[in-house]
Amino acid sequence: MISSLFFPLLIIAVVVLLITAALSPLETLSWWAGWSEDEIFNHGPSQSNASTPSSKSPRHYVVYLSGISSISGRFLVPREKTFIKGLKDAFPDFVIIDDVFPYSPAGLGLLSGSRQFDRLWKRVQKYKLRGRASILSTLIKFRNLFQVMVSADHRYGPIYNRGAATAIEKALVHSGYQPGSGATIIIVGYSGGAQVGVGAATYLKARLKAPIDIISVGGVMASEPGLNFVRQLHHLVGSKDRVQKVGAIMFPDRWEAMAFSEWNVAKREGRIHRHRMTGMSHAGARGYFGLPKFKGISNNQRTLEKIVSILSNTNAN
Hints:
CATH topology: Rossmann fold
Structural class: alpha/beta
């Protein structure tokens, strides 16, 4: 039965993948043109998953942007939930927001509102919740990867990143952030989430007048104008993370020869800090958020400890 369905599903997946790639900029352009305003205002998240800080005036707001396997800000995988819980336990005075979906200019998850291939995404989500591997689940990664490429594109990126900044700003304000208060905004971006976070920094800085730090967890990033508005960028790089290495190669502006790109200027100014994570790959059991223990500690715990250390220094400043 399974073998008889494999090739039809494969053909469907390839066709959908090609259509999704071709239409990737369309969602950004339609958002910019206002074609999806009703969807944006009527189907946004009804409540935020932000933690409740113990202090009345939080000075730090952390926004977590998931990797490209994400289907919605409301559905984090168990390893991400474990990491977020650890972060909340370590910093009860921080506001930690984990429900922003970075792979849509409107911040809408794949299960929100009327979308292309809506039934397909729901079927894929059902497979994920059951813990079953499916060739269709690969579509989520490719679909979101195309959105990362739109974010990094010099033509469509400014529009996409402005939308992403709006989604992040709404989540921050809903969680009590007061524009102009000077409270620090820290964006923790995993994989493609780091690109979206850096891209959104330009608009967040202009609107909220806040210091913005980025923590990239295996981030696949371009040399973004948003880097000019980032106070510090901490880049966690797994020694066995080939995905992150490909990202560093595929964006020419990050090459050392491009001395005056935003990336290389930020490096010379000492605003980009590289943290080598020994033995870590991009995803899976040995990925940054892997739960199995190796030599008595999981990679999830190691990543958490590194980020806690970075945030502790931020808190001290």
